[in-house]
Amino acid sequence: MTSINGFLDALPRPRLQRLGRDVPTYRALGVAGYYGALIVILAGGLMTGRSLLMLAILALVSGVSFFVYAYLRRWITGQERIVLLEHVWFALAASVAMLRILHEPVAAYLDIESVGMCLFLAAGRAGCTLVGCCYGRPASIGIVYGEAAALDGFPLDLVGVRLFPVQTVEMIGLLVIGTGGMFALRYAHPGTVVVWFLAAYAILRFGLEGIRFDPRPHFLGLSQARWMAIIEVGAILWLSDGHPLNGLRVEAAVALAVASLAGLTLRYAFDWRRRILKKTHLAELRSAVTTELSVRPLVKVTSAGVNVAASRTGAAFGSEAHVSISLADDRRDLELLCQLAASAFPDLSPFAVHASGGKVLHLVLPIPPELDEDDPKAVARRGRNLYGSVLRQMQRGGASANVPVDDGAPPPSRSRPWCFTVAATRRG
Questions:
Q1: With contact defined as beta carbons under 8 Å apart, do 278 and 304 qualify?
Q2: In the chain, what's the furthest Cα-to-Cα distance?
Q3: In this prediction, what percent of the chain has a pLDDT beyond 70?
Q4: Angle CA 366–367–368, to nearest 5
Q5: For residue 387, which of 199, 107, 158 has the smallest C-alpha distance?
Q6: pTM for the model
Q7: Of 332, 313, 331, nearest to 322 (Cα)?
Q8: CB 3.0–4.6 Å: which of 127, 187, 222, 353 could bond 226 by disulfide?
Q9: pLDDT digits (tens, 9 = 90+) for 164-222
Q10: CA atoms in the 13 A half-sphere facing the CB of 37
């Protein structure tokens, strides 16, 4: 494990040296991936006897669509964020439109394009691995990103934390999918390879979302990418079935969709994690530390199922409180406990927190604690700061980590083109 981690720790390099100047790694790998995909597409054309000129035009349209969609998304949302599934959909839609305008067989050319797209996306995930975006959850095997990565956009609160290389796993999966599609080009019925690519990548992405750790939009407990993967697989099953639809199948599909949505809604509404972060529960926890603890040492279970044990040092007003919190029923979720602590006690320092047994969070609080309401984004950032500090201590055997903590100010950045960069762009 030590040798694997040593190899992985040597990978991060947010910028490369080329001809005496810095080049963003993600942009360099993106360009290399595009040219590699172009070679694969032309090779696929030779294997299947398709027009190389048409394939070159198709590759150009796909490449231009990447930038067009990025600009459109930035114009509509006001932020730069690359979501690979969105770009895949837009590129395929642009390719279909171009092929129909030129009266070319859509399915046959999309088969070849999908194989090249696998290589391009794999190169993108290699870039994510090196620069530190789209990172995985904390793990005993993984990559530790340093302050150099933070200068290019990696979260400062996770500097020094070992994270699972989920980007590398996705890269390998994409290469496997592309290799399988390449071997099938000569023998498969037109349209089969693109269906294989879309279905396999959607399933791969849905599974890997469970071990991603970077913040992403969620709805009813599922991330944006998982919803898109579900829609993608559903559309593929619907469109690739050559049998005519009948009323019964339509009704069954609608019933299944409604039941699934209702189940997710109920699961979200009764999620015990949400109850722990409700304002009423935060007020209960604050009251316990500020009021009940002033009378006697505190040992209780809150209404949301959080075990609290607290004592204070000294009798004078302004002394410190030593508080330990854990989840009932022996549940383990240090990330949730850190978010609870950051939400309930805004003035809590990340250096006054440590964990034991992987399930108990120990806090040192000033009495009385700061109780002002705070911006939700600031609270979430503080929670991640606390969690990052706890993770560094746990992964280093309890030693305190001399790593700066995000105080809300953006990290210093260099001036660079917006596309293919990390400091100004979030990727998914």
A1: yes
A2: 86
A3: 79
A4: 115
A5: 158
A6: 0.76
A7: 313
A8: 222
A9: 999 999 999 999 999 999 999 988 888 889 999 999 999 999 999 989 988 887 787 78
A10: 29
